Amino acid sequence: MFPTLIGTVVIAGIVGYAAERTGFTHNGILPSIIICVGGAFVFYFVALMFGFGFGSPGLNAILASVGALIVVPTHWRR
Q1: What value does the mean pLDDT take over residues 1-9?
Q2: Is the pTM of the predicted complex or chain greater than 0.85?
Q3: Which residues lie closer than 8 Å to 65 by C-beta, 6 or more apart?
């Protein structure tokens, strides 16, 4: 369980950084990473409690991170 949690955080951080560098978001690097890690944490624990997910934990982390970037509004978005 612990290595999966650490892997989720690492993958979410990479997704947040990549989303900012490619221009998918305009939040700033640190806010994007924080949003992704928060979304991945929430989805990880919800999936752990209720036993559902999209397949592998890595895929869950990627989809949860991208979903959090889409859902969480910031004041920089237009």
Answers
A1: 91
A2: yes
A3: 11, 12, 15, 16, 19, 36, 37, 39, 40
Measured from the Cβ of residue 48, the count of other Cβ atoms closer than 10 Å reads 14
- For residue 48, is it within any domain? yes
pLDDT tens readout for residues 29-74: 999 999 999 999 999 999 999 989 888 999 999 999 999 998 887 6
* 31, amino acid identity: P
Helix axes 29-50, 2-22, angle to 10 degrees: 140
What pLDDT does residue 75 have?
A: 58
Q: Tell me whether residue 77 is in a domain.
A: no
Contacts of 35 (CB under 8 A, 6+ apart): 16, 27, 68, 69, 72, 74
Residue 63 belongs to domain spanning: 2-71
Any domain includes 78 = no
